[in-house]
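Supplementary Text 2. Reproducibility record for the structural model of the 384-residue chain.

All settings were left at their defaults, and a single model was retained for analysis rather than an ensemble. We include the record here because the model underlies the residue-level annotations in Supplementary Table 4.
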Amino acid sequence: MSSEAPPSWIVNEITRLGGVISGERFMELALYHGEHGYYQKMRGPLGREGDYVTAPVMTSLFGELLALQLIEVWELMGAPDTFVLIEAGPGTGHLAEDILRTAKKFPPFNRVVDYRLVEQSPPLRRMQQQRLAQAGMMDRCSWFATLQEAAGEGIEGAIFGNEFLDALPVRWLEMTKGGLVEVGVEVTAAGALTTCHLPLGAGIAHDHFTGLGVDLPVGMRTELGLQAREWMRLAGRLMRRGMVLMIDYGYTAREYYHPERMQGTLVGHSRHRRIDDPLSAPGEMDLTSHVEFSAMARSGASGGLDPAGYTHQGWFLMGLGLLERIEGVMRREGMSLARELQQTAMRLILPGEMGDRFKVLAMTAGMNCPQLSGYRLNNQWDAL
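Retained model, structure tokens:
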């Protein structure tokens, strides 16, 4: 139970819906409510001054290297005349700016890029448009509310996202002595919010984890990202030829449902602080859960995608030449700038930092399982 009095808007919403809702529905309200949801108002900044910082905000190197991977895919496809880039959850617009700036250095690729941003949040869309307008790139971009709208009947190109899947609402589950149950949120007689047990909703079988070879101990709470799975299936169905690439913090199924994570991975983020109580301050903090990448790979395959690569972010960026880029800066600009860049880059690749907490999953369609540079040093696909 949250120790703080919940805002009246969410109490009213839950009461209107019968007094009890699923954990997934609570996340949808807390994050995406049309007036009060966290992503719908975004009063504060993102990045170092906001609730969390993402890799593209830290350094342009991240977007530059990702652009190289996109260019390689385009070349492996035979350099088609149109190459659609769909970025899901573009955040501040930093990644789009860095990718498009890098594309300008490769004129044949730059001429064929059609950049589409999928963003539901009005404040974030305005932030992205302001940044890209200042960079003189607005004529290269178009905005859509959903992946389906952005892709139409299907595309040739790439669908990608950095820290997108983790923000999709998840089902909250708990293993009890009587079996698997869903965890919901209810309003108490005193007007507080508390969790409760509910019968399993649609889409979840009682033997779901048994089918995965996972034995959840009694008392363990965890999550099931059914919306993320459906998103990956849709991405596969919409990708006629090209790559789907998702970067996020997460685990394989074996790691995700390990008993060391007895309380699951669902947390809040506010001013760079981790908030363990997901019921506190709905609409005022980000709510995320780690991505279960084994399920993402299966879902992508059910949508028609082929395996390409899975690895830690550190290996992915080094495979694309991160260390060589730093050495080049050192030669051109001197040690002082290179040292500052190196310190930032180390956060992206070192174990214990983003390097091993973030994973990179790539799947392709119509490309005959190409060898991608981001996975040349350490492809861990078999771990999925």
